[in-house]
Structures are given as C-alpha cells and as structure tokens.
Amino acid sequence: MARDTPLRDDQVERYSRNILLKEVGGTGQRKLLSSRVLLIGAGGLGSPSGLYLAAAGIGTLGVADSDRVDLTNLQRQIAHGTDCVGRDKVESMARAIRRLNPDVTVELHGRISEKHIPFADYDVVLDGSDNFETRFLVNDAAVRLGVPLISAAVLRFEGQLTTVLPGDDHPCYRCLYSGPPAEGTVPSCSQAGVLGSIAGTMGTLQATEAVKLLLGKGALMVGKLLLYDGWTGEFRTVCYRRDPACTACGGVNCGENGGA
C-alpha cells in the first residue's frame, strides 16, 4: 500500500485505536501499512512480535526460520498450536498472521546465513534468534547494509533488548558484546529453561520499538540495553557507546560503559 493511498472503510475501523493516537493518526497508519519488517526466528520472540506487528497493520512481514514446530515450543511460541507440531515454523507463522490480519503480506525465508541475508528489502529487522552465531551475523549484516535492527534475547526469567541504528556514530551489538561467549559458559533455553511469558514480554517490546522506529517518533533503545528481570519485576537500562575497535561498525567513541 502506498503511503498516500486512502485507508479503506474497513481499515479505518480495524485500526481505529491506532488512528486515535495523535502520534499515529491516519498518516502514521498508512505509513505502517506500507512498511516492511523482517522477523529472524518464528519462536518465542518472533511469535508475539510478529502477531502484534500484524495486528498493528504492518504491510509486509518477512519470516526467516528453518525449524519445525516441536511440542516443547508450545509453552512460549504462541503463533503455533498443537495441530502445527511437525510443520515448518514459517508456514505455521504465516498461517497465524494471515488469520489475524489479511491486510498483511507474508514473505517466507529459510535460515539466515552468510549466503542468505535478505535484509536490503526491509525497513527494519527484528532478531529473535536462539544462538549467538546468528545473532552476530545478523548484527554485522544490518550494519553493513544500513538496516535498523532490534535485537532481543531471553533466558529463564530474564530478557534484554537493544536497537541498532546504523550510522551517525551509533553503537552496534558488537560494541556491547564483542563476540560470542566461550562455549559452555552461557546455557541455552533448552538447558536452563525459560518462562514463556518472559519471551512474550520481550517480543512485545520489540514490536513496540519497531512501530516507533517506522513512525519516526518516540525514544528508541539506541545505545541502551534494556534489562528485564521477571522474577523481581524490575526493568533497568544500561547505556553503552560505540567501540573504536568494533569489527562491525568501526566505532570512534567508546567510553567506560562500552559493555555490559
């Protein structure tokens, strides 16, 4: 949908609660309907972020994942149902999005790799991957291609989120963490567990961050790491700067808060 195309009557009704917000309005809603967002992962983070972005009226959602739905996924990956076990996650996710909002065009992609990085066609990338190799590959590609990135992660009762806005001396994910941790030092969700609603919280925050970015309004988590402890119910923010030794963005202004 072009940004100057009038909203249909049914769209005015569907998105009326968005449109009532002066920060969105009809102009902003048309902007969302013309936007393109890529979800890396159709799991615990991609499920809530994708569904809320679909509900908000994002015109095109790309979904990149190569896994199949497993019974253990259903505790947190809310886009999938029991009847989806054994199906490709991207197909299951596409079905959930289309059922929620037929306005949305869904584009399916396999696993992100050095040979498969379809970022250039999207306005923003949401990283909900479950491994460090993909997380750093996604950051490096987003910086190189100049595509905004919203990265989130969860484990046990905790979550974190940051936004990478390439250019203008902004820091990237490698400025925060220079590289993957030593093997065996950080457990996976399959080893340590994760409360499903923690993934829901962080995926929803990713969706909110994406909407603000696409509208060009509101404060973004650029140069900030949002930390959430669901066990204590506390949020806190850690600021970080660009690392002059960063191998991804070639930063020039790192201070004592260059990591967390």
Number of domains: 1
User: Approximately how much beta-strand content do the residues carry?
Assistant: 15-25%
The major beta sheet can be summarized as:
8 strands, mixed
Helix content: 25-40%
Key attributes of the depicted protein:
260 residues; 8-stranded mixed β-sheet; single chain; 9 helices; alpha/beta
Q: Overview of this structure, please?
A:
The chain has helices at residues 9-14, 16-19, 25-33, 46-56, 89-100, 132-145, 173-176, 189-192, 196-215; strands at residues 36-40, 60-64, 105-109, 124-127, 149-155, 158-164, 224-229, 234-239. It is α/β, with parallel strands linked by helices and 260 residues long. The protein has a single domain (35-239), classed as Rossmann fold. The chain has an 8-stranded mixed sheet, with helices on both faces. Helix 6 links the parallel strand 4 (124-127) and strand 5.
Summarize the model shown.
The chain is of the alpha/beta class and 260 residues long.
Topology:
Layout: H1 9-14, H2 16-19, H3 25-33, E1 36-40, H4 46-56, E2 60-64, H5 89-100, E3 105-109, E4 124-127, H6 132-145, E5 149-155, E6 158-164, H7 173-176, H8 189-192, H9 196-215, E7 224-229, E8 234-239
Parallel strand pairs: 1-2, 1-4, 2-3, 4-5
Antiparallel strand pairs: 5-6, 6-7, 7-8
